[in-house]
Recover the amino acids of this structure.
C-alpha cells in the first residue's frame, strides 16, 4: 500500500494539477497584490514535508501523553523548541485544572451468573507502544463522579431521550438501575446525563462491533478496526453547559483564579460511568431478559439483544484522584506589520488519551509543518500584514481545557483583535472537511480549489463536489452541481474551536481530511504510530494537503488587503435554517396532532401484542403556530445588506481602492460578534452565539439557531416564540453591521 | 402465555364485538336476502373449534409428509375421510410429477483450510418430532441440477442483479466461482438463476442470523427463531417461467400426459444449488478475502463480511433421485342449487417439507374447520346457491404442483365455471392479510369488518386500519384514514393461487393472519407441533378467525344474489399503477442521465479510493419518453364503466331487482378473464394476466402491469412502448366488459 500511495504522491505535488488561479484570485486581495500572494503561496505549498511529519508523529507518540503525564510536559517543551527553531516568538502558558484520573474501577455481573469485566486493553505483538501499561491511563470516563452501586441492568440503545420513550412504552424503567448504552448516536456525555434524568444509578458505555468493530473490517492488528478488548476513553462532563475546567466557568484557570469546589461543579456527572469493550459487554448483554429490542437497536454481537433487566444485576465501582493537574499550552507568534493588532489564530491540541497518533498528532504534525514553512518564509524576508498566532493546546481530551482556559484568560484581547480562529484535530485520507462560520464559506471554497487532492489528481474542492454529486441527497446533489460554493457545515463541538466561536463569537473554522479509511482505535491504546502508519495516511500526503490548506488559509487571512469575509452565503444559510425551523414546527405539530388523535381513538391499544405489550406514548400539548416574522424579516435585512456589501466589495477590489481597507477590516473583525448575545443561551449562558451551538441533548452535533430549535424539539412553545425574537435581534444586529460595512466600503 | 391468550379468547367469541352489520350489509345481497345471510353467518361463526384445529394439527404433523412420502399419502386419505365425514362429496385426484429428492450432498471448504459442512439439522430435546431423521427429507433445494464442482467462493449478498453490479464495480467476478447468497431479498430460485447468468458454477444459499436467526429473538427451542443448524429447504425451479411439474408445462401431469425429458425441462437450474445453515456458513464466509462488503450487505455473524474470493475455495456436490412421484390432491364438493354451474373454490395445501405444522397445517386446519361447519349447516338444511369446492393440495412446496396440475387438467371447466379461488397457507397471530384481485377489494373489506380480532376486541378490519395509521408511510396513513376501503395487495406468487389468477385469469384471493410472532423454522425440521403450540397461535384463536374470515367469504360468494365484484377500486388501483410506471420511467431516465453525466465528468474516478478502487458503472442508453396515452385512456374508460356499474348495482340492490341477476352473474364470472391475453407475457406465455405476475427477477414479489414494468426496469425501451399497448388493450377489454355488465344490470 505504501508503494501505491508514494507513486500517487508524485502527481500530488502539483505537476498534474492546474489550480483555478486565473478564474478566481484569492478573496480579499486587490489586483496589485494578487501575483505576490500567489508567488508566496507557491513557495509555501512546496515546503510541508511528509517525512518530517512522520518523524514528528513518531517522536510525539512514543509514550502516553495525557494531561498531567510526564510525556505531555515533555512534548509541550519539544513543540516549544520546534516553534523557536522555526523563528517564532513562543512560550508556554500554564493553567491548573480539575482532571480526575482513575483509582478504582470495577464492573461485575452479580446475577444470574458471575462475570468480572477485565477493563484492560491488552498489548499487541508487533505494536511497540501498546505494552506501555505503566504510563497508560486506564480506560475510564473523565468527570464521572465516584460511586459504588449495584442494580438491575437495562440496555438503553444509544441512551438518547427517544430511547427512553421506547423503553417506557415497553414498560421498562431504569429507576434504580444501571444502564448500558452503545457508543454513538450522541456525544458520550449525553448518555449518563439522560440516564440520570430518568433515575438510573450508574452507566456503562460500550463500543458495539456493528458500529465500531469487526462489522466494518478486520480488527487490529490484522486490520484497522476495534478489537474485542478495545475501549473508547473520553470525557463525560456536561460540556453543553460549559466546556473547560469545571471549577472555573467563564474565567481562566490561573493560579489565583476563584474556584468552585468539586461538589459545586455542575458539569460533573450525577451518576458513576465507565466505558467498556465489546468483549466485556457481551456477557452482560447476553444476561439480559425482558422483551427483545426493536431492529434499529440491535448491535453486531452474536446474541439476541433484550431491553433487560430480567435477572441481570451489575455492580459498578468508580473512584478517581480529583487533584488539580497543570496544562501546558504552547503559544507561538509571528508578529504582523501594518496590521499587527489583527490576529490570525491557528490551533491543534497536543494532549492525547494515550499515545494519540491519529488524535491529535495527525493534525498537529501538519500544523508544525505549516509553522516551519511560515517561519522559513519569514526568515527569507516575507512579513505578514497581521500577527499570526499558532497554538498547540493541552487538555483538549478531558474537555477543551487548554483552549478554553487560554481564551477565557485573554477574552478581552481576543474580542478586540482576533480576525479568525482556524482549528484542526485528526487527519486522514479522503475529502477536505470544512466546518465553520458561514461568513468564511466563500473564502474557504477558494482555498479548497487551490489545494490538490493527493490521490485524485484534481483539487480538494473538485473531489468533494464529485462525492456530493454521487452520494448526496437530491438536494445536496443539486446544490453541488449548481451552487457557486460548496456548503460548509456549522460548528457543533468536539474540538478547540468551541470557545472561540461559541463563547467569544470569533469567526472560526475547523479543517481536516478524512472519509476514506475506517478505524476503530479512537481513544484507545491502539491509536498509535504503528496503527497510523499501517492503516491511515501512511505516506503523510494528506498531512501535507492539510498543511497546505490550513497554511494557505492563514497566509490569505494574514496578508489580505480586505479581510475575506462575505455575507451573502451567511444570509442564504440562515434563511435555510429558518425554513428548516418552520418545517420542524409543522412536522412536530402534525406528529403531535396525529399521535394525540391515535391515542384518543385507541389505535395503540388495538395494535398492542398481548405477548409483548406496548403502551401508547404520552399525550402532548398541541403545537401552537409560531411567529417567524421577526426572523424572516431580519434575514431579509441581512440578505439586502450582504448584497450591498458584495457590490461595494467587488467595486473596491476591481478598482484596487485601498483607502478604506483599514477601517473596513477593523469593522469586519467585529462582524461575527454581532451574532452573539451577552445573556447567552437559555440555561447555558456560557454559549453566546445565537446561530451555532452544540446540542443540549446531542453534544457534538450542532444545533443551528439553537434557542429556537431546541425549544421546538422539546415542545417548549412559549419559549420558542421568545427565542425567535432573540435570534431575530442577533440577525438584525448583523444586518445593521453589514450595512455599515457596505457604506464604509462603498463610500471609498 | 396460553393463559393470557385463553382469557383474551373469551372476548373474541363476539361478546364484546359489535359488527358493523347495520351500516354495511354484505355486498351482493338484495334486501330480502340480507337477514337470512346474517343469521346463517352467525351460526357459521360459532362453529370453528380451536381444540379440533389443535388436534388436527397434531395428527397431520406427527410425521414428515413431503411429496412421495408415506405420511403424505396417509394425510391425504385422512383429509378425504374428514371431508366425507362432514358430508362432502370428496375424492382424491392423482398426478405423476417430477420431484427430485437428494441422494448425495457435499459442501466443503478446500482452501485455505479444510472444513466440511454438516448439512444436518439436529434433534432437539423436548421436541418429540425433531428426531424423525429416517423420514425427514434432508436439507436441499429441489430442482437443483446434479453437479460436482470446485471453485473459488464469492459472497453475493442476496444474489439479485443489483448485487452483481456492485461486485463488478469492485472488480470481483463470479465466472467459474461458487457463490454464497443470503436467503431473502428475492425468492430463492432467483439466486441460482442470476448466478448462472453471470457465469457461476455453483450456488450456496444460507440463512443469515441478522435476517433469520438470533438477531430477532432467542433461537429454538429456547425461543422461536432459527438455530445455528436450522436450514431452509425449498424449490429453486424457475417458477417465474412456469410453476407446476417441470415436465408438463400448460397441461395436467396425468398418467398419459406428454412429458418433456428432464434435460429438456427449462425450469431446472443451470448450476447445482444447496441450502446451508448459518452454522455451516460461518467458516466459509470467514475464509473469504477481497474487499469488505458495503454496510447494506452485512449479516449478523460475528465476522467481517468480504466479497471474496481471496484464497477461499469450495467443493459442492449435489445429486438427486429424479424419479416421478405421485400427488394426492383431495377435492371435496358441496353441490349448488340454483347456480350449481358457478363454482366457488377454496384451497390450502397439505404437503410439507418436513412436519410442516405452520406451513401449511396452520392454514389447512382452519380450512378443515370451515368444511366441517359448512357440512354441518348443510346437514341442518342449508343449501348454497353455488357449488362449493374445497381442495387440499399436494405438492405445493416443490412448485405449486398439485394446484397447477389440477387447474391445468380442468382448465376449460374452470374458465367456464369458476367464480373465484380463495387460498390460504400459513397462519399466525396478528393482522388479517388479504391479497388478490382488486375487483374483490370492496367485498373483502366487508368481510374483514365482520370478523373479530381475537386479541384486540375490534374487527380485523379496524385492527389493520390502526396498524396502517400508526406504522404506514404518509400515503398509506392517509389512505387508511380517508379511503372507504383498506387497500389489498396484488398477488405475486408463493402459494396455490398462482395458477388460478396468473394462468387462468380467475379472480383470486389469499388470506392469512400474521405479523405478531416472529419465527425461524420455515422449511426446517423445527416447523412442527411443538414449535407451533409454544410460539405461534398457541390457542388457535387466529385459526378460528381465519376459518371465520375465509368461511364467510365462501358463504357470501356462494349465496350472493349478485356476485360481489366491484370495479371502481380496480380502476383506481390500475390508475395508481400507471402513475407508478410513469414515475418509474422518469426516475430511471433521471438516474441514467445523471449517471452518464457523472461517468463523462470522471466523478467516479475522482472518488475512487486507491486502496479499495471502485470502477464507474456501465454507461446506459438514455431513456426515451414513453407513450402512456393508450393506458391512461383505457383506465379512463374503465373508470367510467365502473362508475356506471356502481350506479346500476346500487339501484338493483336498493330495489331488490332479481330479474337480471343470473345473466349478470354469468358475465361477472368472465370479468377477470378480460384482463388476460392469450399470448401471455413476453418470454413466459404461461402467465396470461396482464396486471399481475411474480417478478422475473423477484420470484415471490408481484410486478403489477408486469410487461411494462419489467421492460422499464430492464431498460428495454421499445418493448416498454409495445407492452403499454398490450396492457392498454387488456384494460380496454375490461372496460368494455364492465360497460356491458352495467348495461345488462341497468336495463333490468
Amino acid at each position: 500500500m505504501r508503494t501505491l500511495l508514494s507513486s500517487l504522491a508524485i502527481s500530488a505535488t502539483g505537476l498534474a494539477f492546474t489550480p483555478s488561479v486565473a478564474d478566481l484570485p484569492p478573496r480579499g486581495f486587490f489586483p496589485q497584490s494578487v501575483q505576490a500572494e500567489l508567488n508566496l503561496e507557491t513557495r509555501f505549498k512546496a515546503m510541508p514535508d511528509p517525512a518530517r511529519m512522520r518523524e514528528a508523529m513518531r517522536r510525539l507518540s512514543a509514550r502516553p501523553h495525557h494531561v498531567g503525564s510526564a510525556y505531555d510536559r515533555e512534548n509541550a517543551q519539544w513543540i516549544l523548541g520546534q516553534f523557536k527553531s522555526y523563528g517564532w516568538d513562543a512560550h508556554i502558558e500554564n493553567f491548573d485544572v480539575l482532571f480526575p484520573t482513575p483509582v478504582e474501577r470495577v464492573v461485575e455481573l452479580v446475577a444470574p451468573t458471575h462475570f468480572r469485566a477485565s477493563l484492560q486493553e491488552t498489548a499487541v505483538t508487533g505494536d511497540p507502544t501498546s505494552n506501555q501499561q505503566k504510563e497508560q491511563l486506564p480506560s475510564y470516563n473523565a468527570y464521572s463522579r465516584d460511586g459504588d452501586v449495584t442494580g438491575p441492568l437495562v440496555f438503553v440503545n444509544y441512551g438518547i431521550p427517544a430511547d427512553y420513550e421506547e423503553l417506557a412504552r415497553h414498560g421498562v424503567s431504569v429507576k434504580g438501575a444501571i444502564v448500558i448504552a452503545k457508543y454513538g448516536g450522541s456525544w458520550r456525555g449525553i448518555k449518563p446525563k439522560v440516564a440520570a434524568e430518568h433515575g438510573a444509578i450508574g452507566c456503562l458505555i460500550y463500543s458495539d462491533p456493528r458500529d465500531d468493530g469487526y462489522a466494518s473490517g478486520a480488527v487490529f492488528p490484522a486490520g484497522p478496526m476495534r478489537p474485542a478488548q478495545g475501549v473508547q476513553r473520553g470525557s463525560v462532563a456536561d460540556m453543553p453547559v460549559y466546556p473547560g475546567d469545571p471549577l472555573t466557568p467563564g474565567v481562566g484557570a490561573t493560579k489565583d483564579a476563584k474556584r468552585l469546589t468539586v461538589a459545586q461543579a455542575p458539569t460533573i456527572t450525577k451518576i458513576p460511568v465507565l466505558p467498556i469493550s465489546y468483549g466485556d459487554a457481551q456477557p452482560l448483554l447476553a444476561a439480559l431478559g425482558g422483551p427483545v429490542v426493536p431492529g434499529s437497536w440491535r448491535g453486531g454481537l452474536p446474541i439476541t439483544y433484550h431491553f433487560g433487566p430480567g435477572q441481570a444485576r451489575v455492580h459498578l465501582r468508580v473512584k478517581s484522584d480529583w487533584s488539580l493537574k497543570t496544562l501546558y499550552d504552547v503559544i507561538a507568534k509571528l508578529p504582523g506589520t501594518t496590521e499587527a493588532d489583527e490576529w490570525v489564530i491557528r490551533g491543534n491540541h497536543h494532549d492525547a488519551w494515550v499515545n494519540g497518533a491519529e488524535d491529535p498528532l495527525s493534525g498537529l504534525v501538519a500544523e508544525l509543518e505549516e509553522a516551519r514553512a511560515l517561519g522559513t518564509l519569514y526568515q527569507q524576508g516575507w512579513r505578514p500584514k497581521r500577527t499570526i498566532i499558532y497554538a498547540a493546546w493541552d487538555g483538549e481530551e478531558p474537555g477543551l481545557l487548554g483552549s478554553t482556559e487560554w481564551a477565557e484568560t485573554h477574552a478581552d484581547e481576543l474580542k478586540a483583535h482576533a480576525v479568525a480562529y482556524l482549528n484542526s484535530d485528526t487527519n486522514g485520507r479522503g475529502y477536505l472537511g470544512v466546518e465553520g462560520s458561514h461568513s468564511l464559506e466563500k473564502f474557504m471554497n477558494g482555498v479548497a480549489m487551490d489545494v490538490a487532492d493527493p490521490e485524485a489528481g484534481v483539487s480538494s474542492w473538485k473531489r468533494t463536489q464529485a462525492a456530493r454529486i454521487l452520494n448526496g441527497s437530491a438536494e445536496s446533489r443539486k446544490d453541488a452541481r449548481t451552487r457557486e460554493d460548496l456548503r460548509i457545515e456549522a460548528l457543533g463541538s468536539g474540538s478547540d474551536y468551541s470557545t472561540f466561536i461559541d463563547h467569544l463569537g470569533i469567526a472560526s473554522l475547523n479543517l481536516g481530511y478524512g472519509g476514506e479509511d475506517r478505524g476503530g482505535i479512537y481513544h484507545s491504546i491502539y491509536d498509535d504510530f504503528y496503527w497510523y502508519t499501517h492503516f491511515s495516511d501512511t505516506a503523510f500526503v494528506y498531512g501535507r494537503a492539510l498543511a497546505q490548506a490550513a497554511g494557505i488559509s492563514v497566509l490569505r487571512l494574514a496578508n489580505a488587503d480586505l479581510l475575506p469575509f462575505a455575507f451573502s452565503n451567511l444570509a442564504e444559510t440562515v434563511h435555510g435554517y429558518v425554513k428548516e425551523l418552520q418545517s420542524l414546527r409543522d412536522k412536530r405539530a402534525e406528529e403531535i396532532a396525529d399521535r394525540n388523535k391515535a391515542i384518543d381513538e385507541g389505535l395503540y391499544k388495538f395494535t398492542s401484542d398481548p405477548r409483548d405489550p406496548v403502551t401508547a406514548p404520552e399525550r402532548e400539548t398541541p403545537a401552537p403556530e409560531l411567529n417567524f416574522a421577526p426572523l424572516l424579516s431580519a434575514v431579509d435585512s441581512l440578505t439586502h445588506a450582504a448584497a450591498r456589501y458584495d457590490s461595494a466589495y467587488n467595486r473596491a477590489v476591481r478598482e484596487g481602492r485601498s483607502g478604506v481597507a483599514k477601517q473596513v477590516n477593523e469593522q469586519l473583525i467585529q462582524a461575527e460578534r454581532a451574532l452573539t448575545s451577552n445573556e447567552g443561551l437559555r440555561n447555558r449562558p456560557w454559549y453566546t452565539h445565537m446561530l451555532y451551538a452544540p446540542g443540549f441533548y446531542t453534544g457534538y452535533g450542532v444545533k443551528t439557531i439553537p434557542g429556537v430549535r431546541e425549544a421546538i424539539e422539546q415542545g417548549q412553545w412559549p419559549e420558542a416564540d421568545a427565542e425567535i425574537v432573540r435570534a431575530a435581534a442577533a440577525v438584525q444586529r448583523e444586518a445593521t453591521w453589514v450595512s455599515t460595512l457596505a457604506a464604509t466600503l462603498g463610500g471609498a
Q: What stands out?
A: Residues 1-22 of chain A have pLDDT under 50 and may be disordered.
